[in-house]
Amino acid sequence: MCICSEVYFQVLSCYLNAHSGEITMRDTNKRKREEESYYIQAVTENSTYQQSGSTVSPQHIQTPVIEQNPAYNQSLLLNQPIIQNQQLLYQLQRSSDTQQNLVYLIVPTNENIQVQSVPLTIVNDQQGTVQYIETSQLTAQDANQTENTIILENIKEEETEDKPELFVEEDINCAEEENIQYSYSTHQNESKQNANNIGSANSGYSQAYARAISSSKDNINSNRPHWYHCDYKDCSESFYSLYEKKQHLDAHIFPENSEFKCSICNMVFEKAVDRNKHVESHAIPPTYKCKQCQKDFSYFTVLMKHLEEKKCSHKNPVSGATRKSPILIRTLIGTSIAKMSSSTFETLHVTVPKPFVYHVELHRPKKRNALNEQMWKDISACFSGLNNNPDCRVVMLSGAGKMFTAGLDMNSAMNLGPKVAEQDDVARKAKILYPTITLYQEAISSMEKCCKPVLSAVHSACIGAGVDIVTATDIRYCTKDAYYQVKETMIGMAADVGTLQRLPKVIGNQSLVRELCFTGRELPADEALSSGLVSKVYDDKESLIAGALKVAEQISELSPVAVQTTKLSLVYSRDHSVQEGLDHIATINQYLLQSEDFLNAVLGQMSKEKVVFSKL
Ligand SMILES: CCC/C=C/C=C/C(=O)SCCNC(=O)CCNC(=O)[C@H](O)C(C)(C)COP(=O)(O)OP(=O)(O)OC[C@H]1O[C@@H](n2cnc3c(N)ncnc32)[C@H](O)[C@@H]1OP(=O)(O)O
Description:
Layout: E1 12-17, E2 22-27, E3 40-45, E4 47-51, E5 61-62, E6 72-78, E7 88-94, E8 101-106, E9 117-122, E10 132-134, H1 140-144, E11 150-152, H2 174-183, H3 188-196, H4 204-218, E12 228-229, E13 238-239, H5 242-253, E14 260-261, E15 268-269, H6 272-282, E16 283-289, E17 296-299, H7 300-308, E18 313-315, E19 322-324, H8 327-333, H9 335-340, E20 348-354, E21 357-362, H10 373-388, E22 394-399, H11 410-414, H12 416-421, H13 426-449, E23 454-458, E24 461-463, H14 465-471, E25 475-479, E26 483-485, H15 499-507, H16 510-519, E27 522-524, H17 525-531, E28 536-538, H18 541-556, H19 560-574, H20 578-592, H21 596-607
């Protein structure tokens, strides 16, 4: 760990209430300081932290600086400045098999982030009081009696002579160290690579690290107070700083190529640090309160999960009986959201991966997402709901399983046959088919009519009705293995739910449109890109979803008034003359330029501050 000049470290004391398991951390530094900022990161092993107390609000929880380690259940970083003597309260719930809870306090003492880690070994205090011992004064006897003791490592003074001889300040570029601190790898290989990277121009930290390690081997018994030993199984590595030890420790736990999943939206990341950044993006102020149990949630999606899982039950005031009720969702966030839960649709899976971003998945993977009667209805209901849903600002549409969609469900379509056959007269037969065709048309048009931008993310096949769908979306992306097929002529029909009307306007190449529609040939991703059907091709589904989500997120952060009006005008202008389009937008903007969004957005641009727009 870099020890730069003018660094002084704070001593934090911890009090543990044995009965409630509540830990209070207080700044007890005796030095006089004006309001200095501290960052506290708490990492617990085999424990969960629940935040409580009014001094810390959930929106101050940010992605931890140190990557989350699956061995630890929770890892929180508070970026709230802690004013002297201010209390931070955590509820520490220990599992019965917990041997030890590790709490790392990272205490930057000034703007340049002179970070020092303080390991606290917290064990139950039977007396309800806490003893803490500065590790430098820790005797072997103390070490054996840590059962009822909180050990607070003394980091107040780092004696220069205690450093390894080769571990000199000049070796360390603080900025570089900060960089490493924020993005360090969890893989042992990379750590080792760093350590071996001695000759490279930017390897100050690595050199110091390597030398610290090699030096540590020579000095392992030198009785220096700041050596940290790896306590993982039989490993006996020693480290000069806790950070290095932790970095090393992670290598034991993370196998190479391990994946990190977002617990909120299940998105998978290669690195914990990316996952953590992503998780942060789920949080938006203000926090969400469940009206039933008054529980606060910092993530909207977690609240949704809470409601969906019906963890929260209504109590009948007369009988005292409890019942689970989805009404709760409605009272909380409006009827439209209640309709949006994945359980509401048989054939669609709806999630909210980011604030204001809805992800609709065609979800009949076993039938290759073929559109049966139910799916047509679900699509209509879903997009009409999203149109009116103030919590939705943008929609991403994709397909579950092997492909985007195999198009019209042939079995479902065949069911119409007997009904038609019942009638002898052609006009009466037609009367049966007409509502079906218009129902299907409405479903496709509901995406275009939805005032929120819809992004389609296509992987593998997008056949028949799939092309109708994507041409009704606003932004189209696909994977490189994707192909589009206007297959209707191959099954003896003319496409009738949008392809013939929209595809020519989307790609603007009549010749290509006609070739595709007449022949039913597959249009591969590269041609889809060059013809303008899609605007970006991704390597695989994972990067496709991540890329589309990123764009969706950008859209969701902008003024919903501006975005929705823009879509309205673009769709209108596509079907009207330039003058009609201009008249249309002039009529709209004479009102909407008076909206708070316009003022706030302009002020935000001028002050370079991020504007959070209210719901529309
Ligand atoms: C008023 C109407 C307006 C709308 C008009 C729309 C028209 C169209 O959409 S035209 C296009 C119709 N679609 C097709 O022609 C595609 C037919 N399917 C296939 O060619 C293949 O299934 C496909 C290449 C998509 C996938 O092949 P894969 O080997 O991966 O899967 P399969 O083993 O063939 O299928 C797996 C199960 O899915 C069922 N399935 C696939 N497509 C459809 C479909 N279009 N309709 C109904 N069911 C479909 C298939 O039967 C398999 O089911 P199971 O046997 O029960 O396992």
